[in-house]
Design brief:
Elements lengths: L2 H15 L3 E7 L9 E7 L2 H17 L6 E3 L6 E5 L3 E7 H7 L1 H4 L4 E3 L5
Parallel strand pairs: 2-5
Antiparallel strand pairs: 1-2, 1-6, 3-4, 4-5
Helix pairs in contact: 1-2
């Protein structure tokens, strides 16, 4: 399995385990040099957003993929987790709608978890 695909699959499963809403996986490998995949999801409240990010961090760390950097954990409006090959975005519902990363990265290819 492709290294970044494996990472994206693990992150997706970790997000799904914490009931993240509307998880999107966007392949940006053909339009970006800094990552292969964006994973975008939202939680319904601050505690869930943090729980989703915590679970992603735990699962990825156990698999040998430590996070390079994390931003926004304290406010939990938009948590960004950089794993080099994948970037995980966990939003509050309002901030996800406001920033609309799916529109910004529309040149990427949305893939399903089954395709990873």
């Amino acid at each position: 399995m492709n290294h970044s695909k494996e990472m994206a699959k693990l992150a997706f499963e970790a997000m799904d385990d914490k009931l993240a809403k509307d998880i999107k996986i966007i392949d940006i490998s053909n339009i970006s040099v800094f990552a292969d995949y964006f994973l975008i999801a939202n939680g319904t409240n601050r505690n869930q957003v943090q729980a989703i990010a915590d679970n992603v961090d735990e699962v990825m760390h156990k698999a040998g993929y430590p996070v390079k950097s994390t931003e926004g954990f304290q406010t939990a409006n938009w948590i960004l987790m950089d794993y080099n090959d994948i970037i995980v975005h966990v939003f509050s519902e309002e901030d996800r709608a406001f920033y609309d990363l799916e529109r910004i990265w529309k040149d990427g290819t949305e893939v399903s978890a089954e395709d990873l």
